[in-house]
Amino acid sequence: MTEVIPALLVEDYNELKEQLSRIVNVASIVQIDVCDGKFVGTTTWPMRGSDPYVEAILDEREGLPYWNSLDFEFDLMIINAHEQFEFFVRLGAKRIVFHLEAETDQTKFTEFLEGIDMYTRENISIGVAINNTTSIDKLKPVISNVDFIQCMGIEHVGRQGEPFDDRVLEQIKSLRTEYPELIISVDGSVNEETAPLLVQAGANRLVVGSALLHSYDIRETMSNLENL
């Protein structure tokens, strides 16, 4: 069965809570897209300035909405996101995705991954995302220190509803050939039309945004994608 992860791109805490309420009884994990307005053009929660809800979560006075029913994967479309790793750990991350192209010093990023302590490793999965124009050879310095790779199915990341870029299919096939046991996640323009192609290419996780949230029946769409 393919793992399907709903993806949320929200501006504030109230929008996050509202969208989570629609999937809390359908999914077990959700991806929250985090954009800083620098690596990508958009800026999303929690990068839009001071937020009392964020402060309450960091102070452990409350948790993320529906934290007792959902796990959270943060997709960090942020320049040098590894420098904010502890912030997202404290926010409640179960998985964290770094974008390789957003890391300005690859040596420092590799050293950061190598230095993550064993306790954190046991509790948080670490992924690295690459654009579909990036050679998979760029992953060699980090591949042994990550739990999964996320391929981008669109050219312009940080926005939902973008057209599918089929260059990702060859990228997935190359990764599957090079690393047969690798968990390969795909994010961007994943829907009931593109998902079979992605799974056939070798993907075993599908991150789905607008195709899921705008569907008539979220539960049915989830089930259809899971059982490809």
Number of DSSP helices?
Answer: 9
Strand/helix succession: EHEHEHEHHEEHEHEHH
How do the strands of the widest beta sheet line up side by side?
1-2-3-4-5-6-7-8
Largest sheet, in brief, is: 8 strands, parallel, barrel
- Beta-strand content bin: 15-25%
The secondary structure category is: alpha/beta
| Rounded Rg | 17 Å
The shape, in one word, is: globular
The end-to-end distance, rounded to whole angstroms, is 7 Å
Helix content: 25-40%
**Segments where pLDDT lies below 50 for 5+ residues?**
none
Mean pLDDT: 95
- How many beta strands in the DSSP annotation? 8
Give a brief rundown of this model.
The chain is an alpha/beta fold and 228 residues long. The protein is 32% helix and 20% strand. The protein contains nine helices and eight strands.
Can you tell me about this structure?
There is one protein chain. The chain has nine helices and eight strands. The relative contact order is 0.16. The chain starts with a strand and ends with a helix. Helix content is 32%, strand content 20%. β2 (29-35), α2 (52-58) and β3 (71-77) form a beta-alpha-beta unit. The protein is of the alpha/beta class and 228 residues long. It has an eight-stranded parallel barrel with strand order 1-2-3-4-5-6-7-8, surrounded by five helices. The model has no long low-confidence stretch (mean pLDDT 95).
What features would you highlight for this structure?
228 residues; 9 helices; alpha/beta; globular; eight-stranded parallel beta barrel; single chain
Q: How does the SSE layout of this entry go?
A:
Blueprint: E1 3-8, H1 13-23, E2 29-35, H2 52-58, E3 71-77, H3 85-91, E4 95-99, H4 106-115, H5 118-123, E5 125-130, E6 148-152, H6 167-178, E7 183-187, H7 195-201, E8 205-208, H8 210-213, H9 218-226
Parallel strand pairs: 1-2, 1-8, 2-3, 3-4, 4-5, 5-6, 6-7, 7-8
